[in-house]
């Protein structure tokens, strides 16, 4: 292991559902991998210089391996195609250290909802809760049985009858949404991951039923669709350095800063992970991320330069 990258070997690769590949990663040098908590993900360095983020779905606490589940997105940006078509068993690759933007919090009972490939972080949560003897239930939604990944693990005795599979294009009758959403109990927390439309339906239903936002937890794999904004040019001033960087239409703030020799850590480049979150001390950002809450956006004291812009002619940032 060196720096922030870890050398691993692809020990196994197999299809666990239609268009879903499970990857088993083991340390290349035989040492233990860094520990992780349920909900964590890692950056994966792929052929062609691509870096993509994938959730860890094995049980936390196993230092000898990481397991990922990757859905093939034929219309995506190329990362999943590289995983499915180019990675081979035995191949050496590099990954980042685990990061967690979707952690479990102590709760009397946890409600876990996964849509499609959203099962990956949710499965790790179920493993952790079962190991801790904590109360939980898991609802897994797929369009067809062929698309249900990791169902063998969900049927394991350690989960008892707490995991339920729901099959259908929409939320099916097997899921009693009113019973779950309309009577939020104190000490219950809800976690959801999956396609944006699925997550929006779950979160809207929960909020309509009275769930407070501080008990709703979510993670998106893709940025939510936002109204198109005005991509007019603006300037970024780096406080205390004298540097003023022009950001052109169609150019991200992160790209403009990098071209001026000012590099900001990036990961998803879609405004969903928060890696590039930067402090704003002057001006008003034009927020186009899916990471910040409404309250954090309203404060206007930070922004995501990978995708957000400026509503004022200049932003002053602090590095």
From TrEMBL:
Gene Ontology terms for molecular function: 2 iron, 2 sulfur cluster binding; metal ion binding; methyltransferase activity; oxidoreductase activity
Annotated Gene3D superfamilies: 3.10.20.30, Nucleotide-binding domain of ferredoxin-NADP reductase (FNR) module, Translation factors
Annotated InterPro entries: 2Fe-2S_ferredoxin-like_sf (IPR036010), 2Fe-2S_ferredoxin-type (IPR001041), 2Fe2S_fd_BS (IPR006058), Beta-grasp_dom_sf (IPR012675), FAD-bd_FR_type (IPR017927), FNR_nucleotide-bd (IPR039261), MRET (IPR050415), Riboflavin_synthase-like_b-brl (IPR017938)
Residue ranges annotated for the FAD-binding FR-type domain, each copy included: 3-105
Oxidoreductase recorded as keyword: yes
SUPFAM superfamilies membership: 2Fe-2S ferredoxin-like (SSF54292), Ferredoxin reductase-like, C-terminal NADP-linked domain (SSF52343), Riboflavin synthase domain-like (SSF63380)
Alphabetized Pfam families for the sequence: Fer2
Any GO BP: methylation
Domain 2Fe-2S ferredoxin-type: 232-319
Membrane-traversing stretches: none
Keywords, sorted A to Z: 2Fe-2S, Flavoprotein, Iron, Iron-sulfur, Metal-binding, Methyltransferase, Oxidoreductase, Transferase
Name the record gives this protein: Vanillate O-demethylase ferredoxin subunit
Organism listed in the record: Rhizorhabdus histidinilytica
